[in-house]
Design a protein that fits this description.
The protein is α+β, with helices and mostly antiparallel strands. It has one domain: Aminohydrolase, N-terminal nucleophile (Ntn) domain (Glutamine Phosphoribosylpyrophosphate, subunit 1, domain 1). It is built from four helices and 13 strands. The strands form four sheets. It has a five-stranded antiparallel β-sheet. A four-stranded antiparallel β-sheet has the order 12-1-2-13, with helices on one face. Strand 10 and strand 11 form a beta hairpin. Helix 3 packs across helix 4.
Amino acid sequence: MTCIVGLKHNGHVYMGCDSMVTDGWGWDILPEHAKKLFRVGELLIGGTGIWKMCQLVQFRLDINEQTQSQSDFEYMSVIVAEGIRVLLKDAGCAKIENSQEDSEGEFLVAYRGELYHIDSVYAVRPLSRAFGAVGSGKGQAIGALAILVDSNMSPKKTLRRALAVSAQFAQGVSSPFHVMKL
């Protein structure tokens, strides 16, 4: 249960996250140093699903740099998503059912001014809109962003407001909210 939001604005990408974690029996609020949003090299990554997945990606993801011959989409698909898949599989965070690997989590990734969605089976989708969201509160956040994106609010305030709307109407989403810029 979570909400990760992203917004492209003037050549930059802003991303935000909530702070609630759940374990099926209860919930807790993450302290400032343990966010669902983090940098890995040139990437800004927000993750949903099992909390261990985010920790592994944040602290153990070791991927090659993009080559000159690779497009950004190819790099995200072949290097980043595959690196996440191998890391999570090796750590026991991916289940295999009917020959299909599934991490039961998703990632929103900012890279070179664009937003990408990496789904639970590691498929990469560049977002066609200037904003996006993943997690249990994504529907509420997307609705809020669709209205707020044309307002005069700053990108950080826009994301915080969308997260607040998500927290108001979706279980498993709670403040404090954190926003980062890439």
